[in-house]
TrEMBL record:
<protein>
    <submittedName>
        <fullName>Glycosyltransferase family 1 protein</fullName>
    </submittedName>
</protein>
<dbReference type="GO" id="GO:0016757">
    <property type="term" value="F:glycosyltransferase activity"/>
</dbReference>
<feature type="domain" description="Glycosyltransferase subfamily 4-like N-terminal">
    <location>
        <begin position="38"/>
        <end position="203"/>
    </location>
</feature>
<dbReference type="Pfam" id="PF13692">
    <property type="entry name" value="Glyco_trans_1_4"/>
</dbReference>
<keyword id="KW-0808">Transferase</keyword>
<dbReference type="InterPro" id="IPR028098">
    <property type="entry name" value="Glyco_trans_4-like_N"/>
</dbReference>
<dbReference type="InterPro" id="IPR050194">
    <property type="entry name" value="Glycosyltransferase_grp1"/>
</dbReference>
<dbReference type="Pfam" id="PF13439">
    <property type="entry name" value="Glyco_transf_4"/>
</dbReference>
Length: 402
């Protein structure tokens, strides 16, 4: 278990100018704010940066480690946590104890934001409700789908029930896509759900990042069609489906290459399944954008995404995308115009879609251009303002109820 670390129990420094969100004080609880890099915590750090620039005060409560993946945005207070057995890179925050709880009380938030259904978040919800403070929960992943990737599918119904209890104690939810919001409504998680979409940094991700010389350095010829995958390498990202579909292409004699960008506990398994693939390991920022733009098509069969940051970044780089017909992807991809939406687990259909792109350069170009145009709709500042607006609405509603 890690001991909590905390800054002095004071408010964040006042901004130079008041800003439109002055007076808004957000206590944000995260299970992973910066110790392992992923799409969810990148979105949270961007949100905190935006809120601070607008004059809000933000305090983040999350597990901390000696060597985090990146520096946190804003004030981070460490909470006690333990490593998940079998997945030691991730930690479970235990709750609100001692100086962490005193720090929270001294900060005196006007709204509490919880971003993962862990023990600390449960305690934070109870703490807020006892003080009649509004609580917003952001949904970043389909936790209830994880057991199926570890031969524990029987755990899905009770896990869904636990999630329902957690989310229904919150005043509202924000989901990253309308398709995910609809899933949450159907699961009866909550009925006050706003959309907090995701953005893409178009100064980094764009077609101009394509670099054939870089590809050649990896042994990928200019005339080879490269099917790409980039994400954290864990089984819940659909690595088994990806591998099976690539095997099907090989059986059909479809010439292609595979480029995998990322790292994680399943890397050895994935490399063993795809011995001819090129693995770059983890890349970030401009290096990641260069790798993505240097692919020819993205294949990302995960069904656990609530939005699809990977898909959006690939689209911004001008790639056609082959993805599962699942929450998140359905809100991004226009089937047969900017990519293909395929029934989850349908190996032959995934292979059919990939084969069509491998065989037809004009089709790749047309669908890639359509996806790149669609990606221009996602501005981070506009997207993050929707969360700020939700905070303010919940505060007004709470005040009106007295």
């Amino acid at each position: 278990m890690t001991a909590p670390t905390a800054s002095p129990a004071t408010a964040s420094p006042a901004p130079v100018s008041p800003g439109p969100l002055a007076g808004l004080r957000i206590a944000l609880f995260s299970g992973n704010y910066n110790y392992v890099r992923d799409g969810a915590n990148q979105a949270l750090n961007r949100l905190v940066g935006y809120l601070l620039r607008q004059g809000a005060a933000v305090r983040v409560y999350a597990p901390t480690v000696a060597e985090p993946a990146f520096a946190p945005t804003g004030d981070l207070v460490g909470v006690p946590s333990f490593a998940i057995p079998g997945r030691a890179e991730y930690r479970v925050p235990l709750g609100l104890f001692g100086r962490v709880k005193r720090d929270l009380a001294a900060f005196a938030p006007t709204v509490v934001h919880v971003s993962s259904p862990d023990p600390a978040a449960h305690r934070a919800v109870s703490w807020a409700r006892s003080r009649r403070l509004p609580v917003l929960a952001s949904v970043h992943t389909r936790f209830e789908t994880y057991p199926r990737y570890y031969n524990l599918a029987f755990m899905e119904p009770p896990l869904e029930a636990l999630l329902r209890r957690f989310y229904r104690r919150c005043d509202a939810l924000v989901a990253p896509s309308e398709s995910m919001a609809q899933v949450l409504r159907e699961q009866r998680m909550n009925y006050d759900i706003d959309i907090w979409s995701r953005g893409v940094d178009r100064e980094i991700f764009h077609p101009g990042r394509r670099d054939l010389a870089w590809r050649r350095g990896l042994g990928l010829a200019d005339d080879e069609v490269v099917i790409g995958f980039f994400s954290r390498l864990v089984m819940e990202k659909g690595l088994d489906v990806f591998s099976d579909a690539i095997d099907e292409l090989a059986r059909r004699g479809v010439k292609h290459r595979v480029l995998v960008v990322g790292d994680g506990p399943a890397r050895d398994w994935f490399a063993g399944r795809l011995p001819e693939a090129v693995f770059t390991g983890f890349l970030g920022g401009a290096d990641l954008a260069r790798a993505v733009a240097s692919m020819d098509v993205l294949f990302f069969p995960s069904v656990t995404e609530t939005f699809g940051n990977v898909t959006l970044e690939a689209m911004a780089c001008g790639l056609p995308v082959v993805v599962s017909e699942a929450t998140g992807s359905e809100s991004l991809v226009d089937d047969r115009r900017s990519g293909r939406l395929i029934r989850p687990g349908a190996i032959r259909q995934f292979a059919d879609a990939l084969q069509a792109y491998v065989a037809d350069g004009a089709l790749r170009s047309a669908h890639g251009a359509a996806g790149e145009a669609r990606s221009r709709d996602f501005s981070w500042d506009r997207i993050n303002q929707t969360v700020a607006d939700t905070y303010l609405r919940l505060i007004r509603q709470r005040a009106a109820r007295g």
